[in-house]
Amino acid sequence: MQLLIFRRSTSRTKSVMIWLRHLLALSKRKLALYPSSSVAGIAKPGYPGIVVFTGPTSAIDEHVNTLEVENWQAFQVRYEEEGELWEFVHEGVREVETMAEVVKSMGGWRREEEEFLKAVGIK
User: Fold this and answer.
1) I need a labelling partner for 83 at 20 to 30 A (CA). Which of 14, 41, 64, 72 fits?
2) Which domain of life is it from (predicted)?
3) pLDDT tens by residue, 28-63
4) Structural domain boundaries of the chain?
5) Using CA atoms, how far apart are residues 24 and 121, in angstroms rounded to an integer?
6) Are 112 and 66 in contact (CB under 8 A)?
């Protein structure tokens, strides 16, 4: 299980959750998985595709912009919060297979789980 630690940061950090109609193409999956080394997160391919990134604001903005210019059927940033940094126990971005794994990766932090469930339209 991947754990997540939430903390407020005084530096310029950001966390985002992006909803995609689907994340299937290998080229787009690879693009989502390999942002700058200072970005951490998770990606869930399939229907719907979900990506969660956290890190320095400039790196997050750059990676989101890089993804956004791809040809997506639907691309929505459903959660974006500056001043938040979620620390995963892994480095970089890891791929998970199910929504349940995405929620588990929130590490039991109730607030983040609630934000995620609202962002993807489950709550």
Assistant:
1) 72
2) Eukaryota
3) 999 999 988 889 899 999 999 999 999 999 999 999
4) 4-119
5) 20
6) no
Written as one string, the DSSP assignment of 45-93 is -BSSEEEEEEEEHHHHHHHHHHHHTS--S-EEEEEEEETEEEEESSSSE
Neighbours of 69 (CB within 10 A): 8
pTM of the model: 0.80
CATH architecture of 4-119: 2-Layer Sandwich (3.30)
What are the structure tokens assigned to 7, written together? 């903390």
The overall longest dimension of the chain from CA atoms, in Å, is 37
Q: Nearest 5°: phi and psi at 11?
A: -80, 175
Token pair for 34 = 């390999």
